[in-house]
Amino acid sequence: MSIPPRSESTSARTRPTNNATEITVDLGQRSYPICIESSATGRPDESGFAGRLRAALGDCTHAIVIQDAAIATSAGQQILDSLAGEDIRISEIEVASGETSKSTDRLAELWSELLDCGADRRSVVIAVGGGVIGDLAGFAAATFTRGLRFVQVPTTLLAMVDSSVGGKTGINLPGGKNMVGAFWQPHLVWIDTDFLATLPRREYLSGLAEVIKYGVIEDAPFFDYLETNIAAILEREPQTTRHAISRSCQSKARVVADDERETTGRRAILNYGHTFAHAIEATAGYGVMLHGEAVAIGMQMAASLGVDLGLCSDELLRRQTALIQAAGLPRSWAEADPAKMVPVMAHDKKVAHGKLRFVLPQEIGSVGLIADVPQEKVVAAIRSWSDR
Amino acid sequence: MSIPPRSESTSARTRPTNNATEITVDLGQRSYPICIESSATGRPDESGFAGRLRAALGDCTHAIVIQDAAIATSAGQQILDSLAGEDIRISEIEVASGETSKSTDRLAELWSELLDCGADRRSVVIAVGGGVIGDLAGFAAATFTRGLRFVQVPTTLLAMVDSSVGGKTGINLPGGKNMVGAFWQPHLVWIDTDFLATLPRREYLSGLAEVIKYGVIEDAPFFDYLETNIAAILEREPQTTRHAISRSCQSKARVVADDERETTGRRAILNYGHTFAHAIEATAGYGVMLHGEAVAIGMQMAASLGVDLGLCSDELLRRQTALIQAAGLPRSWAEADPAKMVPVMAHDKKVAHGKLRFVLPQEIGSVGLIADVPQEKVVAAIRSWSDR
Ligand SMILES: NC(=O)c1ccc[n+]([C@@H]2O[C@H](COP(=O)([O-])OP(=O)(O)OC[C@H]3O[C@@H](n4cnc5c(N)ncnc54)[C@H](O)[C@@H]3O)[C@@H](O)[C@H]2O)c1
Ligand SMILES: NC(=O)c1ccc[n+]([C@@H]2O[C@H](COP(=O)([O-])OP(=O)(O)OC[C@H]3O[C@@H](n4cnc5c(N)ncnc54)[C@H](O)[C@@H]3O)[C@@H](O)[C@H]2O)c1
Ligand SMILES: [Zn+2]
Ligand SMILES: [Zn+2]
Fold this sequence. Notes:
Chains A, B: It holds the Pfam family DHQS_C. Chains A, B: Catalyzes the conversion of 3-deoxy-D-arabino-heptulosonate 7-phosphate (DAHP) to dehydroquinate (DHQ). Two copies of one chain form a homodimer. The first copy, chain A, has two domains: 31-199, Rossmann fold (3-Layer(aba) Sandwich); 200-388, Dehydroquinate synthase-like - alpha domain (Dehydroquinate synthase-like, alpha domain, Up-down Bundle). In chain A, 43% of the residues lie in helices and 19% in strands. Chain A has helices at residues 49-57, 75-83, 104-116, 131-143, 157-163, 201-218, 220-234, 238-258, 274-284, 291-308, 314-326, 338-346, 375-383, and strands at 13-17, 20-25, 32-37, 62-68, 89-95, 123-129, 149-154, 168-173, 176-183, 188-192, 358-363, 366-370. The two termini of chain A are 32 Å apart. The mean pLDDT of chain A is 93. Chain A binds chain B through residues 104-105, 107-108, 111-112, 115-116, 120, 139, 142-147, 168, 170, 173-176, 179-183, 261, 349, and chain B through 104-105, 107-108, 111-112, 115-116, 120, 139, 142-147, 168, 170, 173-176, 179-183, 261, 349. The structure holds nicotinamide-adenine-dinucleotide (NAD) (2 copies) and zinc ion (2 copies).
């Protein structure tokens, strides 16, 4: 059981400029740019949002802005203002904040709203919000008239570094998260760090867990950078934050370019910490733990498991623990209960034929896929970061 | 304004055998076979449905048969029986007959049923029924866990010659037909003419209209064949019916291979007669006219328009009229009202910038896309096949 190595031919190209970075996600005909900027949305020239949109779309007569209610007066308004001078008809659709909007009911309503506002193949859907809005609006775009063009404007750190990159869109079913969806690549991802100003600290930290993940799974120099610059990142200092977002997007873009539709196995490395995290989220109960918080604890359990199996050093675990703590993230969960978590893990999608399979660290910047992990070792790993 | 000609490189390959035909739809990695057989579903060897399924899928642990309630004891039972000896877990889902099943509500329910029966990436969805089942089940397959494998078992003539080929799947919204969907190619299309035994005559004739359409738009020798063999086709004589289905599938497969995602314009030729037909269906009111009946009348109006514009001969119109009449299809609609139909046509998707655009015949086997048709000519074409 092994993870295919990073391929040589695919890469995420980067073009750093003055206070901006542009990353190209290499997917042949479906390649697209990720722009990472600060205070740039309203710029009237080609470097502003409207200019980038024109460049990415060519002809476009109609933009449908689908936005999270929580950012309608901040990021959403900035996007709408930036389009005011354009010769484009604008429609606005608001979606209530929170995971419950990723439902079949809200999707059906959204489809009707798209019909009512006259969306057709020359329209573009612009999703402004966190992962919930990106996933829902992206799926609606993928399916309305069998495909509208789509632009992501992520406004949470998690959406900037994770959900807006990679082309996965979808909704939840009552019995399962992200059970329905489509692979649908955007034409443009527009990230302005100004949008983070209003994001609650806990949500911001949650996104940071995924940022740290990229350092562990495939970018050792970036892990070093995070150790040195964590204070500036916590202060949301623009340049450092842009760099952290940009390196994260590059990591994700590289993995996605190697394995766009989850067929080669390479994409599995993104699940580092996640088999534990999903079990933590599921047993903690809805809304108790933010996803990134669970990922932080999950990475701790995975690293302990790696140490126990002799795959990685104590030093790796020590550095990861220190960075997670410095980032203000939890490194343990007092109530983590192996008796509840292990059965959940056995049902996880990443489990093949009922055998527990984990993405585990080898050294900072490198992970492996380990099958057939003895259950007692899993239990021990959970226990090392709980009170039980 | 022109239609791209048939490309030389793409084609639908045919391998006729004793009493079966296999057509390959050439879509690179997504190529798949269409098997056109008679009395073959239950065969225990590799030429039966189960054998073909094994060959098309390789590994498969779970099949979900989604079937029209109307054929559950006939075609649906034959498919289930054919799978009984296989080492595959079988789930059954029944869908009520009729267009109303292509709804967001039924789709959401279907997604839940897929979840409940434990569908995962190693499952296959087998749609058994007419175009309604194929479109609904195909869209559910395209989107459940972002894509399950999919097999079409069409049981109406229309589904055999049209909806099961081409990869379009989808549902209706209250305000618009086929507004939501995905391009999702099947791994196999299995056609057994035995399934037609139970199909009401009116439904059968409705499918014949599309068969005649292929002759007019791109296969003149096939039009000749239909003129000669229409009696045997009306009797559903297996060999003749297989040939008619096979030539129709080849036509559609050729067009689809040239223009998989409706981007080059080639796929537009399939809309011959359809701009009029949609207006007829819309003004007749729901359920009054079957789709193929409207298409037959629509082709008459289109051919009259072609004659009036000097694009084709009287002789073409005469031959088309004779074949439609011999096929037992309507060639006129007494109540066709230009005052009602033209506004509907102006909103049709095939209308660019409000100007009326039509696929019109040049000679048997060849059509062109004609823009800017004067409205009075359209009115006259409608009048020539109505009492007004
Ligand atoms: N598609 C993918 O590849 C992928 C990857 C990871 C996660 N996801 C999905 O993403 C979702 C989680 O994303 P998320 O963490 O962004 O959640 P979210 O979209 O729910 O946003 C979190 C909260 O922050 C609020 N918010 C958003 N932007 C804000 C801003 N700028 N200022 C103030 N408040 C703001 C939202 O209203 C919400 O309450 C989940 O549904 C998850 O399944 C998808
Ligand atoms: N995807 C595409 O490319 C495409 C192309 C054309 C049409 N369509 C869609 O196809 C649908 C129309 O297809 P259809 O005409 O097959 O309609 P349908 O599926 O509603 O079938 C017509 C009727 O025949 C019944 N039936 C089906 N098979 C039978 C059998 N063997 N014996 C007895 N009764 C049987 C059904 O219960 C139904 O009442 C429409 O929704 C249309 O939008 C899709
Ligand atoms: Zn995550
Ligand atoms: Zn049709």
